[in-house]
Write a structure and sequence with these properties.
The chain is an alpha/beta fold and 427 residues long. It is built from 14 helices and twelve strands.
Length: 427
């Protein structure tokens, strides 16, 4: 069984009827490459860390090209296609040949999924019925608020009533997962409660709350902060409490990113599964594991239970896969082991990382850990607890093996202190 990805291209802000007020890609110009694990050893910058992280396309791809590429993928597929997903840098609802594409993909006779839409391209609510007729089975739809005035103002939706009508029709017919970027004082509080109730009554499968990011340490790595001057995002703890409280008042599944999934106990649900932890190899190597501020306390506790020879060092950046060279400059190299494990998807070139972390004159080796150790609420929404635990078991298995393979022997003198005690490498 396999998934077929149909990429329609498109540019954020340009091929979606304009930037939403809170859009992550707003104000991005042409920043220098960040670097990543895919870069050549002698060159900082590759297609991934220069184009893909910015979702930098030339525009929507011609319908003919998309159709031909899809046919070519089908001809070489070695597994049965059990899911077709439409994605792109722009909003699929704004794709000029969107309905034609859906009609063509219906011939594959596999469930159709739209990975993301704001719905700003829908000008006729009857499109919902046509999509269902052509096999649409799942959609992720940004709602922001059930109040059309707020959608118009903050999403710049020219037809908010139509978009909300499409959400309502689809929620009653297929698996619709709604998303709300929470702007404090704007669409939280009573507005959020009304939105959640409206979605639940319509039949939505779930609601994903997304904490608004407005500063670099919250995840804006493209030189475009702040997105909305004057708005102070919630702390991670306050946001997690919001997710938990709203979930307790509704039958509909409600999760949050970066924290949390109340139904599954993620991220790091495995911390409550001692039998699964017992299946993991024990730590024998010494290394410093650099991670984001959100994951650090969870990961430090888990590695201590697995042997304690590796320390966790938290940077100020909250999300591990968005760590950049700037975050590493804030660390105190003297607090690090000779081997440093970076998150697999961290946006920093390996050689640059080694130079930064060896700036005290002690040579350090940088190795990459797994791409993912757990599932945030956005990922876990479509998963069950068994799937999340399997993901975490696999990620921790690879992390422990990486530390044991590359780390120094775990006996003898080792540095002490966890990432929580040495936040950003300093007491």
């Amino acid at each position: 069984m396999g998934e077929l990805i149909v990429d329609v291209g498109g540019r954020p802000g340009l091929d979606c009827r304009g930037f939403c007020a809170y859009c992550y890609f707003k104000h991005v110009r042409n920043p220098a490459p960040l670097g990543c694990r895919h870069c050549l050893p002698f060159k900082k910058g590759c297609d991934y860390c220069t184009r893909m992280v910015r979702e930098q396309y030339d525009g929507f791809r011609p319908f003919r090209d998309v159709a031909q590429e899809t046919l070519a993928k089908l001809q070489v597929a070695t597994r049965e296609i059990d899911r077709v997903t439409i994605s792109g840098g722009g909003d699929p609802s704004c794709y000029p040949a969107f309905e034609d594409l859906v009609e063509v993909l219906a011939a594959i006779e596999a469930p159709l999924h739209i990975g993301y839409t704001s719905g700003k391209g829908f000008d006729d609510a009857r499109v919902a019925d046509r999509l269902v007729e052509h096999g649409l089975s799942e959609i992720s739809f940004t709602v922001f608020a059930s109040d059309p005035g707020l959608r118009r103002r903050y999403m710049h939706d020219p037809t908010p009533d139509v978009s909300l009508a499409v959400i309502e029709r689809l929620a009653g017919a297929i698996d619709l997962y709604a998303a709300v970027v929470v702007l404090p004082g704007i669409n939280d509080g009573e507005v959020l409660e009304q939105t959640a109730s409206w979605l639940e009554d319509a039949g939505a499968r779930g609601l994903i709350l997304m904490r608004f990011a407005n500063e670099p340490h919250q995840g804006l790595v493209l030189g475009n902060a702040p997105l909305l001057p004057g708005i102070e995002p919630q702390s991670v703890g306050s946001f997690a409490a919001l997710v938990r409280d709203l979930s307790a008042r509704h039958r509909m599944r409600i999760t949050g990113t970066p924290l949390l999934d109340p139904a599954l106990g993620s991220p790091f649900a495995i911390r409550d599964e001692p039998e699964l932890l017992a299946r993991l190899p024990r730590l024998t190597g010494r290394a410093s594991v650099v991670t984001g501020a959100v994951a650090a306390p969870f990961l430090a506790s888990l590695l201590e239970r697995l042997g304690g020879t590796a320390s966790v060092v938290a940077v100020r950046k909250e999300i591990a896969c968005l760590i950049t060279a700037d975050d590493l400059h804030e660390l105190d190299p003297a607090a690090l082991e000779r081997v440093v494990v970076l998150p697999g998807r961290a946006l920093v070139h390996d050689r640059e990382a080694e130079a930064i972390l060896s700036s005290d004159g002690v040579p350090r080796t940088v190795v990459r850990g797994p791409d993912m150790l757990t599932a945030d609420g956005e990922t876990s929404m479509g998963m069950n607890r068994e799937g999340v635990l399997e993901m975490e078991l696999t990620g921790l298995f690879h992390l422990v093996n990486t530390i044991n393979l590359h780390g120094e022997p775990g006996d003898g003198d080792r540095r002490t202190g966890s990432g929580q005690e040495r936040r950003a490498g300093r007491s």
